């Protein structure tokens, strides 16, 4: 792009720079200067960083430079910041990639989408161990367009690990995570809502567009640098290149739409227009969760991952969240120990047990029914096979060697096949016992040491780890709140009974 075009593109009335009063004033002041400069330098071409400068015979660069400098210095008086920019400050503004590289990257990102799944994400035979302890052995499942998948399993089964693998925060040891497109936007809502208490609500929503805000801030800085670089045509050319690059990035992220998007979303989340200027700190955790969720949705994710989103929420907010998520079309994966929540939302349940995943169609209640049926069928198949194994063993010992050795050897082969290739696994059924905690002693807390124990509440398994030590003080329920809805606390705090 030639220098003139760049100066024209630096039409400071363009809307991507809107929103700053200081900037608006500067824009107004700078516009006539740069327009005039661009007209006068009509025959001059500066190409990027190659510093090739062509001039017409009527163009006197020195004369032009001093004229532009005179005009821009008038602006600089109004904007003292420009004068304070050091050479290092200006150099730090330049991106590593050129405009062409940026364009190429965009094209690559958009076209490099070939994948064996048409929407969402698929896990194939994923395994993961930590320090030699296997958490995931063989995990395969899929979340597709229109699906809301509930991930269930006992504490420590590896549910969060799976979300972290999908989000790219962890690498699987083996297996594949196949995404519908490589640049998929995957958003994570955890139970710890990420909000900044000292921001206003609108600022908080704007912070969802961190990259975009950075572009906006950088554009402002480049503009300031331009004002102070009028004596250096080469630098000015480079700055215009940088401005061009930023402008392309701004267009790619649709900077103009941000404000409108926030204004549309706020009432959907239950915020009034007046809330815009209130501090985040003045809202309850339920409302802060709405902000967290809103920030995620503003980014138009392709997949939403939710890890225990109902923890710390009151019942009204949980119901609101259920209704709100139900309306969202984006595919999602939800980890929750809240059965009612999963019932309301899920179209599919993936259970992880002892490192292996199993998929059940339907919501949580349907999963419980299907799982019982599966256990029954599996148990019947296992029993049948055990009988067959016993019968075959018996046959082998009766046939023995000698004349029947041929039949014995084929029975041995059959036994081998039954015990290895065709082996039906005995379904694992957890035994549960209930533990209640005693009234707090004088020390304010107590320790329960549990050896070789599994225990849970109703159908929710809490621990399947042996030799577990739990410390609990009545006022300190953080350890527990990770797994349990509030209604269980009353039961736990009521008294101790070892079943
Ligand atoms: N970075 C890590 N280093 C070592 N061990 C880890 C790491 N991350 C997870 N683990 C272990 O892996 C196991 C599975 O953890 P994960 O958080 O995925 O389980 P979960 O099913 O989400 O449990 P919960 O319901 O308690 O959230 C746990 O025993 C945990 O201690």
TrEMBL record:
One GO MF annotation is: ATP binding
User: Any idea where the ABC transporter domain is?
Assistant: 121-379
Q: Which CDD domains match?
A: ABCF_EF-3
State whether keyword ATP-binding applies: yes
**Which InterPro entries does this one have?**
AAA+_ATPase (IPR003593), ABC_tran_Xtn (IPR032781), ABC_transporter-like_ATP-bd (IPR003439), ABC_transporter-like_CS (IPR017871), ABCF_ATPase (IPR051309), P-loop_NTPase (IPR027417)
What keywords would UniProt list here? ATP-binding, Nucleotide-binding
Q: Which Pfam families match?
A: ABC_tran, ABC_tran_Xtn
Q: Which SUPFAM superfamilies does this chain map to?
A: P-loop containing nucleoside triphosphate hydrolases
Q: Which PANTHER family match?
A: ABC TRANSPORTER ATP-BINDING SUBUNIT, ABC TRANSPORTER DOMAIN-CONTAINING PROTEIN
- Protein name (record): ABC transporter F family protein
Q: Which organism is it from?
A: Quillaja saponaria (Soap bark tree)
Q: What is the lineage of its organism?
A: Eukaryota, Viridiplantae, Streptophyta, Embryophyta, Tracheophyta
């Amino acid at each position: 792009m030639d220098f003139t075009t760049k100066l024209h593109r630096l039409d400071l009335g363009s809307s991507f720079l809107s929103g700053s009063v200081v900037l608006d004033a500067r824009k107004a002041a700078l516009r006539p200067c740069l327009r005039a400069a661009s007209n006068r330098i009509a025959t001059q071409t500066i190409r990027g960083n190659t510093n090739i400068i062509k001039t017409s015979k009527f163009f006197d660069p020195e004369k032009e430079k001093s004229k532009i400098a005179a005009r821009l210095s008038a602006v600089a008086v109004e904007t003292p910041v420009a004068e304070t920019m050091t050479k290092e400050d200006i150099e730090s503004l330049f991106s590593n990639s050129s405009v062409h590289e940026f364009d190429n990257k965009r094209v690559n990102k958009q076209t490099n989408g070939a994948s064996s799944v048409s929407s969402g994400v698929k896990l194939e035979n994923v395994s993961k161990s930590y320090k030699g302890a296997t958490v995931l052995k063989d995990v395969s499942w899929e979340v597709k367009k229109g699906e809301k998948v509930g991930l269930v399993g006992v504490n420590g089964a590896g549910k969060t690990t799976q979300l972290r693998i999908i989000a790219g925060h962890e690498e699987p040891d083996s297996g594949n995570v196949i995404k519908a497109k490589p640049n998929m936007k995957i958003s994570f809502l955890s139970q710890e809502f990420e909000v900044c208490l000292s921001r206003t609500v609108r600022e908080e929503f704007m912070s969802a567009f961190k990259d975009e805000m950075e572009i906006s801030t950088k554009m402002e800085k480049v503009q300031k640098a331009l004002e102070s670089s009028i004596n250096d045509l080469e630098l000015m050319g480079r700055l215009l290149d940088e401005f061009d690059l930023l402008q392309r990035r701004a267009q790619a992220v649709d900077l103009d739409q941000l404000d409108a998007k926030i204004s549309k979303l706020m009432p959907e989340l239950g915020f009034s227009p007046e809330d815009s200027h209130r501090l985040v700190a003045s809202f309850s955790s339920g409302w802060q969760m709405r902000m967290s969720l809103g920030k995620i949705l503003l980014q138009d994710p392709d997949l939403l991952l939710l890890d225990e989103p109902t923890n710390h929420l009151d019942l009204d907010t949980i119901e609101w969240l259920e209704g709100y998520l139900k309306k969202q079309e984006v595919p999602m994966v939800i980890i929750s120990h809240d059965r009612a929540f999963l019932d309301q939302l899920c179209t599919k349940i993936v259970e992880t047990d002892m490192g292996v995943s199993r998929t059940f169609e339907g919501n949580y209640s349907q999963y419980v029914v299907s799982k019982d049926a599966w256990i029954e069928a599996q148990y019947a198949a296992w029993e049948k096979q055990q009988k067959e194994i016993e019968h075959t063993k018996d046959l082998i010992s009766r046939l023995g060697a000698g004349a029947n050795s041929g039949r014995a050897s084929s029975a041995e082969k059959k036994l081998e096949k039954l015990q290895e290739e065709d082996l039906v696994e005995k379904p694992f059924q957890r035994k549960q016992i209930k533990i209640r905690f005693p009234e707090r002693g004088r020390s304010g807390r107590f320790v329960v040491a549990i050896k070789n124990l599994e225990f849970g509440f109703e159908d929710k398994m809490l621990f399947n780890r042996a030799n577990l030590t739990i410390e609990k003080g009545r006022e300190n329920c953080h350890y527990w709140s990770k797994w349990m809805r509030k209604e269980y606390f009353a039961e736990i705090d009521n008294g101790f009974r070892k079943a």
